[in-house]
Write the structure tokens for this entry.
Amino acid sequence: MRMVVLGLGYLGATHAACMAELGHEVLGIEVVAAKRAQLAAGDVPFYEPGLPELLKRNIDSGKLTISGSYGDAADFADVFFIAVGTPQKKGEYSADLQYVDAAVEELVPLLTRDALVLGKSTVPVGTAQRLADRADELAKDINVEIAWNPEFLREGFAIDDTLHPDRLVLGAFGGGAAEVLCREIYAPIIDAGTPFIVTDPATAELVKTSANAFLATKISFINAIAEVCDAAGADVKAIADAIGYDDRIGRRFLNAGLGFGGGCLPKDIRAFMARAGELGAAEALAFLREVDNVNMRRRTRMVEKAREMCNGSLVGKRICILGAAFKPESDDVRDSPALNVAGQIQLQGASVTVYDPKATANSKRLFPTLDYAESVVEACSKADAVLVLTEWREFVEIDPIELKKHVRHANVLDGRMCLDSGFWIASGWNYAA
Ligand code: UDX
């Protein structure tokens, strides 16, 4: 089938390449010329394992083409995916929908045949209805159907999550072609037994928001337990293992530590709060706010623990931060807990050196005043404390005996509870987590 993907960021580039991989003819629309040129050369402007190869293969075979023109998009196909960003508004909790709105405003007046617009971007409940009303106003003697088909991909697993999702969700207004067309688009995925849930647009929008809110809640739950463990001298990791054996609870997303960051969970939970407030669901809002509060407290607590390790003051201390990406196998530093902690420690008078295997370039753009090193050893040289804030395999595999030779004081703070604490302690380190 021919289809268009509007917006070639993380979500759009992955979706476009994966749809081409399924055998469809795909036109990707990216309005930023520099990004377009980069992608057209098969060069992905962010780190996602496997995506450069997938993109290049499908561009070379002609199944995926890239353009910056909405005119090209309107001519090319009758199915359009909206995959543009919905960042947090500056100074507010709500989502900024200007790019989603612009996609509809620009595309629909150019359409000359009936069309289906499938939203993939994460949006507040009610957005599809609003866009459907607007599309009706903009459409010229044609029928433009709006439906929502949320995406659940994780960074680092984006291709697998798109081609082998846990479920497909479609929220459609009755009487349109959305379900039939989606069954055709996703035929290989549905035939493989993937659950396909067809519902109304408001429910589909809320499925996505609820999924992210639940994941955030699970992480904040275990981190709230970690606060109690901290006070009681108990082992939160053992608790997570023990409760995780219960199928109803499950062990995944129960890793206590520095908490969640990235381009999705933090902004989505805040957008959910803002929308819950607008809808008058005040109790739900208070619950979600606490999930966010627990998460943000982790960062402050990490700074306190670093200060405690440095005998009560960070002034003049050399602190090594290992990890800047919001999670391993990513170069994404949006709302990175690690960089947030690095910044706070620097503000308290320490000299901070950061090392990350993949995210240094992005970190430098966001936090140019921090020092950056090219290796673990360089970052740790003469350090008073080493903080492991992203659980990259490279850090898990550090030899503590060897690293001890390079630091001034053998203090290690394991912000992701990913190190072998017994080994580090036996190697002469003062270990805290
Ligand atoms: C998330 C959702 O998982 C995905 O379904 C949605 O589409 C987008 O948002 P992503 O942002 O790629 O995906 O990251 P994820 O793997 O969910 O991790 C989010 C954050 O939670 C990271 O900062 C990670 O370090 C943290 N985390 C995760 C924990 O602190 N503990 C855990 O047990 C798991």
